[in-house]
Amino acid sequence: xxxxxxxxxxxxxxxxxxxxxxxxxxxxxxxxxxxxxxxxxxxxxxxxxxxxxxxxxxxxxxxxxxxxxxxxxxxxxxxxxxxxxxxxxxxxxxxxxxxxxxxxxxxxxxxxxxxxxxxxxxxxxxxxxxxx
Length: 132
Ligand code: HEM
Description:
Elements: H1 11-15, H2 17-31, H3 47-61, H4 74-80, H5 85-102, H6 105-130
Helix pairs in contact: 2-3, 2-5, 4-6, 5-6
Bound molecules: protoporphyrin IX containing FE (HEM).
């Protein structure tokens, strides 16, 4: 028997790369002017490259097939940027606001649940490095 299961559509496809680009663009434009996040993000000089890299990161995290390849070192870079629980909490609140401004509640919640997972993971890894 050849059961044909319908191909599942990824969250990335449901949102679309254009909207992912727009969320990322809006988020970093706000982060650069944010009272606590502006300072850590002052290390970024090429915003066009940074936004393209992060948009690709989210596209793949949300289940899209990679369209470009980048090397990521999130744990090391965040440690160097002074990542901590308080900054993460501000980052997440800002990200949630931007998601809600761009997407319907269903897609916004789906994307945000990935933010929670990655954020928790970054925090655990960061705390581990602080104790080494
Ligand atoms: C769930 C939360 C977060 C996610 C998913 C996330 C994701 C990422 C990713 C994928 C990169 C690229 C890393 C690379 O180029 O190898 C990055 C870079 C960066 N992130 Fe985050 N981030 C988060 C939270 C934060 C927070 C709270 C801060 C505040 C310190 C922060 C500051 C930075 C900075 C400054 C860079 C650029 C580092 C560099 O290019 O040297 N991020 N982030």
